[in-house]
Design goal:
Largest sheet: 5 strands, antiparallel
Protein name: Head-tail adaptor protein
Order of helices and strands: EEEEE
Organism: Pararhodobacter zhoushanensis
Strand order of the largest sheet: 1-2-5-4-3
Strand content: over 45%
Number of helices: 0
Pfam family, one: Phage_HCP
Number of strands: 5
Structural class: mainly beta
Oligomer: single chain
Shape: flat
InterPro entries: Phage_SPP1_head-tail_adaptor, SSP1_head-tail_sf
């Protein structure tokens, strides 16, 4: 959305509620401006939706659990039958 000063601001809108299983993945540490910063990746398992369906999560979306926010990095089928999806996500840490 235009911010009125020549720039843009981003806002998020809830699209629905999902059942999901959250599993911690790999973590890493990198050098930050002031101190080392940790980075944790997660796998979020949920019921499948077909390619092109508006119910299927996309990498430009986020998932939320209470106050925790997860940026979706990639989405793939979690099992051969296609009953579940796995969203590879990174937890956002407020600055």
């Amino acid at each position: 959305m235009p911010d009125g000063a020549g720039g843009f601001s981003t806002s998020w809108v809830a699209l629905g509620t999902l059942w999901a299983e959250l599993r911690a993945g790999s973590g890493s540490e990198r050098r930050g401006l002031i101190a080392p910063e940790g980075r944790m990746l997660f796998r979020v398992y949920l019921r499948a939706a077909s390619q092109g369906s508006p119910q299927r999560p996309r990498p430009d979306q986020r998932l939320r659990e209470g106050g925790r926010i997860f940026t979706i990095l990639a989405v793939s089928e979690a099992d051969p039958s296609g009953a579940y999806l796995v969203c590879h996500a990174r937890e956002e840490v407020p600055a």
